[in-house]
Amino acid sequence: MANPNQTTAVVSACRNTVKRQTLTKHHRHRQELSDLIPGLPDHIAELCLSRVHPSLLYSVCLSWSRLIYSPCFPPFLSLYTVLSSKRTDHSDLTNSIQFFNFDPISSRWASLPPPPPDPPLRLLLRHPSFISRYLPIQFVSVSGHLILLAATAHNFSPALSRPLIFNPLSRTWVFGPQLASPRRWCAAGAINGAIYVGSGIGSYFSADVAKSVEKWDFLHNKKTAAVTGHCLTTRSKGSSWKWEKVKGLKDGRFSRDAIDAVGWRGKLCMVNVKGHAAKEGLVYDTEKDAWEDMPEGMLAGWKGPVAAMDEEVMYVVEEIKGALKKYDPERDDWEYIMESERLIGAQQIAAGGGRVCVVCSGSNNGGIVVLDVVAMPVRLWILETPPGFEAVAVHILPRMSQPDLLFPVVDYSSNVQSNLKS
Fold first, then answer.
1. Record's Gene3D superfamilies (predicted)?
2. CB-based contacts of 375: which residues, under 8 Å, 6+ apart?
3. 58 and 94 both lie in a single domain
4. How many CB atoms lie within 10 A of CB 201?
């Protein structure tokens, strides 16, 4: 039998070795970031380099490429995607989706850290009864966070009773507050840092749920956490950590499909049917807590997925024609920008950093169409997905942190550099 004193000494020595290795690695990373610009203190050098586009810094030297992923450098934008296996076995009801991030500076795909195992996340994307379409998985992006709000479980009940939040800068998932009415096939959107879900159905249809709307002031929680030194993993017992009811809908006509409620200039805009079909449209005024009919011109041109750039400029990609248009509120009309067969079949879009990213069904080999809407004429290219996967949804958020840098995470999401490299 081993001597207990010897065993203790060995364990202690191993711990000291691990500690020394960790400190050495930490010191090495610090050294690699030191002398960013010879003759300047690092904090001054960081300010100077933060004015340079990260794509230029990345290829110069190791210390500069590490800098753009450190907390002291404003995070650039990247893509967050829901990807599905290209297998077409519709009888397989296992979870076949993956969450991925595309870094436009390094041009690399990386899988997101797995969500919390308890409760397990079971999302139904395909079912033999719905061969021709995906079952909706509804996300919104708010204040630099990706938030999963609604999906369908294998028993056709709502997959989530609480929103699931991913923070790219800390690479962590946490659950939000309990929904008063968990739902699927609902309207979901965000405006001014608040998240809204409405209509839809639960495990079965309910007229009350189909007409109800809930709001969570996510940005208030985030600011409170920053002031008090807590993160969102620590629940505040304040009254704001909850969903509250707002003005409901007059009927249940918006429970027919999963709806993107688009945040635009202090309002939420949504229609009750996707695509080119005849539809109804509503606009929610967040200040007045009131619903009103959508302007005629806005509704007439809503012929595909819509997204708003910085909640200020709305874009639509027409599903049938593949035309990109921009909404002009002065004329209540959609201004034609460009058209491409690559955009035909558009199912979902995201806008940010001067780019509009489009997911189309059955085309582009499962890739994502990226449009540079700042350039004139508009530039278009296809972002290929990882082998064996096709895109289901896309969002634009700050890049993920790099855990091997061993730096504390600081939230710079309010000052994100705009870039989605071609």
1. Kelch-type beta propeller
2. none
3. no
4. 21
